[in-house]
Design a protein that fits this description.
CATH class of the largest domain: Mainly Alpha
Shape: elongated
Distance between the termini: 62 Å
Strand content: 15-25%
Helix content: 40-55%
Order of helices and strands: EEHEHHEEH
Low-confidence stretches: none
Number of helices: 4
Strand order of the largest sheet: 3-5-4
CATH topology of the largest domain: Multidrug-efflux Transporter Regulator, Chain: A, Domain 2
Oligomer: single chain
C-alpha cells in the first residue's frame, strides 16, 4: 500500500466467502467487486413476475374472491395450464391508475 491509502473490505452475503481487500487505487477491481455483489443481491432477492391468484390477492390486499371478479375485466390476466396468473407489472399499473382515477 502507498502512504495515505486505505483498504476497503467487502463483506459478502454469506460468511462462507472470504473477505476481499481491494486497493482503492485499482478502480477496475473495485468496480468489478461492486458489480458482482450487486448482481448476486439482485438474483437472491428476485421475485417471480407471474403470481397465482392467492399471491396476487395478498399483493393487492384483497381476497382471492374479489380479485377473481376483477380478473380479465379491470385487471389483465395470463392463462397458463388453465390457471389464472397475474403479471406483477399489471397489478402495479392497476394500483397506480386507481390512485389517479379513483377506480
Amino acid at each position: 500500500m502507498f502512504p495515505g491509502q486505505r483498504r476497503l473490505t467487502y463483506q459478502f452475503l454469506s460468511d462462507s466467502f472470504p473477505q476481499i481487500e481491494v486497493n482503492p487505487g485499482n478502480l477496475f477491481f473495485e468496480g468489478l467487486a461492486e458489480a458482482i455483489v450487486s448482481r448476486l443481491d439482485r438474483r437472491l432477492n428476485s421475485k417471480p413476475r407471474l403470481l397465482e391468484i392467492e399471491d396476487a390477492a395478498s399483493y393487492m390486499g384483497m381476497t382471492a374472491h374479489a380479485l377473481r371478479h376483477k380478473a380479465g375485466i379491470e385487471i389483465p390476466v395470463v392463462r397458463i395450464d388453465n390457471k389464472l396468473r397475474f403479471d406483477r407489472y399489471d397489478l402495479d399499473r392497476y394500483i397506480d391508475r386507481a390512485k389517479r382515477e379513483g377506480i
